Amino acid sequence: MKITFLGTAAATSYPLMFCRCEICEKARKTGGRDFRKRSSLLINQNLLIDLGPDIMSASFMLGISIANVRYCLQTHPHSDHFDASHFGTRTPEYAVENIPTLDLYASTATLNKMSEMLRGDGCANDLMDPKEQERLKLNVHPIKALQSFKAGEYQISAFSTNHDKSVESLLYSITEDDFTVFYGTDTDIIPEETWQGFHDKKRKFDIVILDHTYGPKIDGAGHLNANQFAEHIQRMRDENLLGKSGRVFATHISHEGNPVHSDLVKYAKKHGYDVAYDGLVI
């Protein structure tokens, strides 16, 4: 399995557009790994997690073709994770050619919200409509928390999160052959039903990618801070959910308490995890 981080920032990117705090100003000067796009992940060349607003700029910079994507797991429909304009380029009006079918997986509430956003962008009216799916060359799959399913060569399970329950946000584990990655953004404290689901489905993760929106001791709704992140990882180790050589990566990083990359790496090393950056390939 090849894992590519297309973006590793929280909703506002990093540094923030109009912010002149010490962290953002330092990030502007250092650049490189301190420039973070909104979070999205590519597995191999054909499975994308979140059709976010920055995936095309990331693909240009990394020399990756999004046209090769055959499967998309949508965590939720917030604008930093779903850009409706991407679907416009799947319509006949854009004179596009040789579009492969895309299998789209998301909760019903997320799909309904995506449809609303697509109507506003003039791309489509209802993702649940078979005629719309044919026009966009989509296979749409409504899924629920704790549901397992197969997408091509991948075995996937969806898990619940405490992040915006109104759209039934989801977390995902993806297994290819004997290798499993867990993608856990966006989330607040992971619900107990999800912890139980890990055990019921006998998950053991080789890679854990987890929400690290806020720095130490900074509380914010719907996301983890650094302290909670460390507590979650320790629980995974205690409950034998991490493989023997399992690695943990922080992503979805905001300027709120998270220093520039080099300093955050030093902090993370003391607590036994790594910090992802845009373009990182595992």
Structure write-up:
There is one protein chain. With 282 residues, this protein is α/β, with parallel strands linked by helices. It has one domain (3-275): Ribonuclease Z/Hydroxyacylglutathione hydrolase-like (Metallo-beta-lactamase, Chain A), CATH 3.60.15.10. The protein contains eight helices and 13 strands. The protein has helices at residues 22-30, 55-62, 85-88, 108-121, 130-136, 192-200, 226-238, 261-270; strands spanning 3-7, 40-43, 47-49, 71-73, 102-106, 138-142, 148-151, 154-160, 170-176, 179-184, 205-211, 242-251, 274-275. The strands form two sheets. It has a seven-stranded mixed beta sheet. Helix 6 links the parallel strand 10 (179-184) and strand 11 (205-211). The longest helix has 14 residues, at 108-121. It is globular, with a radius of gyration of 18 Å. The termini are close together. The mean pLDDT is 95.
